Amino acid sequence: MADDPQRNFRSAYYEKVGFRGVEEKKSLEILLKDNPLDLEKLSTFSQRFPLPSMYRIHVWKVLLGILPPHSDSHSLVGGYRKEQYQDIVEALEVMRYINSSTPSTHIYLRMFQLEGQVLPRCSETLPPDDENEDFLAISRAMEEIVDDPVDCYWLIKSFINQFHTKFGDSLPHLPKSLEHYLSQEEPRLLNHLRSIGAMPQLPYSLWFKRCFAGCLPESSLQRVWDKVISGSCKILVFVALEILLSCKIKLMGNTRPEGVVKFLCNIPQENTDAIVTKAIDLWQKYCGNPNHVV
Question: How far apart, in whole angstroms, are the C-alpha atoms of residue 175 and residue 193?
C-alpha cells in the first residue's frame, strides 16, 4: 500500500504534540470489530505497535487462544474458563495441595501441574526447581499486569505453553544470537566481557526463559510480551542487547564476571522504558518491520 502523505502528516503531528498512537488505537478498534477476528492482522499490529493498555489483555487472550476468533462466543467461552478454573481449585483443595494461606502464584503452579498431569504426590512435594521457579517468576509478573485471577491463570498457562511450543527449539541459540548482535553494535564491550569470562555466565535464564520477568518492571515488561505473544522471541535478544549497551560504562569498569552478573540481575529500574523502546528499534532495524495491514 502506498504511503498516504496526509496520514503521515497527521501521525507526525500527533507524535509531536504528545498523542503518538492515536491513529494506531483507531486501527486496532477497527480490527477488533471484525467477526471472526483476523489473528494474522492482530499479530502484525502487535508486532508493529505497542498495544493500548485498555485492549492489551483482550488481545493477548485472543492471540493465545484463550478466547476464540468469533467474538459472539467470547462470553460463553469466558464462562467455561471460569468454571474450569474453579473446578481445578476445588480439586486441589480436596487433595490438600492448597489452602486459604497458599500464595496465589503457587496455586497457579499446582493448577498447571495438575492439568499437565505432572502434579507431585503430596509426600514428594519439594521446593520449586528451576523450571518451576521460571513459572513462578512469570506468574508474579503476570499478577502485576492482570487483576482477575481467572484471566491471570489462563494467561500464564497459555503464555508458557505457547512459548515452549513455538520457541523451545530456538531458546538454546539466543545467547549466540546476542553475541552476534553485540559484535555488530559494540565490539569493544563484547571483547571485554569475553576477556573476563563473563559471556557464558550472563543471566540467560532470567532473560530468555523467564522473558525478563523479575528483571523489568511490568510497565516495560508488557511491551516486550506484546511482541513475544504475537510471535517473536527474537525481541528478547534485543532487550538483552540494549541492557548491555545502556550499561556499557558500568560493565566496562567491572573486571569480575560475578560482578557483571550481579549487576545485570538487578539493573536500575528508572530507565527501563527507554531500554525497551531502543530494543524495539534495534529489533526492527535488524529483523524488519511487519507491514501495517489496516
Answer: 13
Q: With 0-12 CB in 10 A as exposed, 13-18 as middle and 19+ as buried, what is 33?
A: exposed
The Cα 188–Cα 155 span in angstroms is 40
- What is the C-alpha separation between 235 and 142, in angstroms, rounded? 18
What's the rounded Cα separation, in Å, for the pair 63 and 208? 21
Q: Does residue 45 sit in helix, strand or coil?
A: helix
Mean pLDDT of 125-151: 90
| pLDDT of 28 over the 90 cut | yes
C-alpha cell at position 47? 508486532
pLDDT at 47: 95
CA 219 to centroid of chain Cα atoms: 11
Q: How far apart are CA 185 and CA 151, in angstroms?
A: 40
Please give the grid coordinates belonging to residue 139. Answer: 506468574
Pick from 174, 179, 172, 207: nearest CA to 194: 179
> Residue 147's CB: how many other CB atoms inside 10 A?
9
In terms of Cβ atoms closer than 10 Å to its own Cβ (0-12, 13-18, 19+), residue 76 is: exposed
Instruction: List the end-to-end C-alpha distance of the chain, in Å, as a whole number.
Output: 10
CB neighbour list of residue 44: distance below 8 Å, 6 or more residues apart: 230, 290, 291, 292, 293
Q: Report whether pLDDT(292) > 50.
A: no
d(CA 210, CA 135): 8
Could you tell me if 231 and 222 are in contact, meaning their C-beta atoms sit under 8 angstroms apart?
A: no
